[in-house]
Specification:
This protein has about 260 residues and is mostly beta strands. The protein has 2 domains: about 90 residues, Immunoglobulin-like (Sandwich); about 130 residues, Lipoxygenase-1. It is built from 1 helix and 17 strands. The chain has a 5-stranded antiparallel sheet, with no helix packed on it. Strands 1, 4, 7 and 8 form a 4-stranded mixed sheet that branches. It has a 4-stranded antiparallel sheet with strand order 3-2-5-6, with no helix packed on it. The radius of gyration is 18 Å and the shape is globular. The N and C termini lie close together (about 10 Å). The structure holds calcium ion. Calcium ion (CA) binds next to strand 10.
Length: about 260
Amino acid sequence: MNRKRNYLLAIGGLLVSLGVFSVYAGGQNGRISGYVVYGEVRDKPLDNLEVTITSAVGGKRITATTNRNGYYVAKDLTPGKYVVSIDQPKYNPAEASVRVRGGDNTKQNFSLLNRAQAGDSNYRVTLTWCDRDSRAVRDVDTYLSIPGVGDPLYFGRRGVNFHGTHLDVDDIDWRGPETTTIHDLRNGTYIFYVNNYSDRGKPRALGNSEVKVQVYRGADQLHVFRVPPGRGITYEVFRIVDGKIVPVERYNDRLPVS
Ligand SMILES: [Ca+2]
């Protein structure tokens, strides 16, 4: 795991240098900010996209626009719940519910997928999570076992075509997303897990992290899974058996790979 540790340190240094970890202290109101990236190519920011922030109480809407780094920020928000959404012609719509606290910066990143083209039948699986409280997992990982392949697709193989599947990034900082694309669906059984990587000593942390897994085929969202409160280091979310998605939704104490 030294490779991942080095990667974490490198990314951590980059984020610190960008001021991502700095705390906004601009008075009683808060802000929401984040990065919008393309979901199938690593490190491709999406600029000039409109992000809508809607207050859950009263429905007041404001917009922000991503800059060349894919970064957006909405400032001076009254503390409370908000829905952050993106609905653009080129990409599948995305939204997230967040809470703004006074004096804090709430981060919400997005990974967008192309709206399906005619004949697009790729399966895409997105993983997101958040730090709702101090028991939440910082780094959750995607795993996908592929029929006929001994080792699963995971962060160690991100960015490459792995037996007809592809994992875009390994997010290590609370919120994801990580996107898995299955380009060539095979007969047999796929198994999709999420793994508590960074807080293995806290077996209930995965269930306190608002882990959400969305499954798309082409433009259609087929399933939304949420990891419920419970005990375990990994959570098997679903299988694909001969082309059919089978929900599993159970905790396990074993890592998918040693
Ligand atoms: Ca991760």
